[in-house]
């Protein structure tokens, strides 16, 4: 039931590799339902066991800086203003203005109408602009609207697109509809110069009901060419959890073994503390290996995590905790 072709590692276009599988709804369903079932007890026990790992001193300092570099600093509220986005972008570039050695975050994640503001503020800093699209967070819109949403964000300068799948279609077994939706949104990420914004595919795992569905959604998104698979919008609970992320990490690991292609993972929602972030980094290393310990292949979708990382970083360098108002509140 698994593909055997081995395209070049890093090529995230899976077209051709899975042509025999995605040729029809029935063959796609057979493949997805033929994936090994998830042992719920075993998965949760494995995640809990990895969460008990502890790292200290220089390893902890390295993990904190790595986690900062992996943050997609996010504001996705109806009350967002251009001023708030500019302030967030400035913080992404210089998270701790008092310490120039503090690394920048990976990206700033905003609604499409705020992309131009974020892009202008970030300039050539190297911090990416990610835009949520496709009728985020519900995904309930006609396909032409979703594609227009994506194209508008890319035209405004988005480096990355975070799309949401049609969970209703997925849960009713219309896997081909979801597959084709991802393919079309990826095509809409293309720029006139031939480059393309990277595509992150959001499952909203809190609505997928079972771990088996998380595994199926992971493979479906990777087969359709997603560059990243992402747990959640942050608007539905539960959002990111360690067991769900473990299943997704196992999926990208297995996908690479079968195809030679790497796909990133982004847990989002509910990750608030340095201790939480380190648990995820340990899980990445133990499940996929050090190749994924890089912002190109693992991200945290977060709005409050960064401040805790900065507080812990300051504690390690100065020996004392800063007050909660030392860093800006986002």
UniProtKB/TrEMBL annotation:
<comment type="pathway">
    <text>Carbohydrate degradation; 2-deoxy-D-ribose 1-phosphate degradation; D-glyceraldehyde 3-phosphate and acetaldehyde from 2-deoxy-alpha-D-ribose 1-phosphate: step 2/2.</text>
</comment>
<comment type="similarity">
    <text>Belongs to the DeoC/FbaB aldolase family. DeoC type 2 subfamily.</text>
</comment>
<dbReference type="GO" id="GO:0009264">
    <property type="term" value="P:deoxyribonucleotide catabolic process"/>
</dbReference>
<keyword id="KW-0704">Schiff base</keyword>
<keyword id="KW-0456">Lyase</keyword>
<dbReference type="InterPro" id="IPR002915">
    <property type="entry name" value="DeoC/FbaB/LacD_aldolase"/>
</dbReference>
<dbReference type="Pfam" id="PF01791">
    <property type="entry name" value="DeoC"/>
</dbReference>
<dbReference type="InterPro" id="IPR013785">
    <property type="entry name" value="Aldolase_TIM"/>
</dbReference>
<protein>
    <recommendedName>
        <fullName>Deoxyribose-phosphate aldolase</fullName>
        <ecNumber>4.1.2.4</ecNumber>
    </recommendedName>
</protein>
<dbReference type="GO" id="GO:0005737">
    <property type="term" value="C:cytoplasm"/>
</dbReference>
<dbReference type="GO" id="GO:0016052">
    <property type="term" value="P:carbohydrate catabolic process"/>
</dbReference>
<dbReference type="GO" id="GO:0004139">
    <property type="term" value="F:deoxyribose-phosphate aldolase activity"/>
</dbReference>
<dbReference type="InterPro" id="IPR011343">
    <property type="entry name" value="DeoC"/>
</dbReference>
């Amino acid at each position: 039931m698994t593909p055997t072709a081995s395209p070049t590692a890093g090529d995230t276009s899976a077209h051709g590799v899975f042509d025999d599988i995605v040729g029809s709804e029935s063959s796609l369903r057979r493949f997805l339902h033929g994936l090994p079932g998830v042992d719920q007890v075993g998965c949760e026990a494995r995640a809990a066991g990895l969460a008990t790992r502890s790292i200290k001193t220089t390893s902890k300092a390295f993990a904190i800086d790595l986690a900062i570099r992996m943050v997609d600093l996010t504001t996705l509220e109806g009350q967002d203003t251009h001023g708030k986005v500019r302030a967030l972008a400035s913080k992404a570039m210089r998270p701790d203005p008092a310490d120039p050695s503090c690394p920048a975050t990976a990206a700033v994640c905003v609604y499409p109408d705020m992309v131009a503001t974020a892009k202008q503020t970030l300039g050539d800093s190297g911090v990416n602009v990610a835009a949520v699209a496709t009728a985020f967070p519900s995904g309930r819109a006609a396909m032409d609207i979703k594609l227009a949403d994506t194209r508008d964000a890319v035209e405004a300068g988005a480096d990355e697109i975070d799309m949401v799948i049609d969970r209703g279609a997925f849960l009713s077994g219309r896997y081909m509809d979801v597959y084709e939706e991802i393919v079309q949104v990826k095509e809409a990420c293309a720029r006139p110069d031939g480059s393309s914004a990277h595509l992150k595919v959001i499952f909203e795992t809190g609505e997928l009901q079972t771990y088996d569905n998380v595994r199926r959604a992971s493979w479906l998104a990777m087969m359709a060419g997603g560059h990243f698979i992402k747990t959640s919008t942050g608007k539905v609970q539960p959002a990111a959890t360690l067991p769900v992320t473990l299943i997704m990490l196992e999926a990208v690991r297995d996908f690479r073994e079968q195809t030679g292609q790497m796909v990133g993972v982004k847990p989002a929602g509910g990750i608030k503390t340095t201790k939480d972030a380190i648990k995820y980094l340990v899980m990445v290393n133990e499940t996929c290996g050090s190749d994924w310990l890089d912002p190109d292949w693992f991200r945290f979708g977060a709005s409050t995590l960064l401040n805790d990382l900065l507080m812990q970083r300051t504690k390690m360098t100065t020996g004392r905790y800063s007050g909660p108002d030392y860093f800006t509140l986002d």
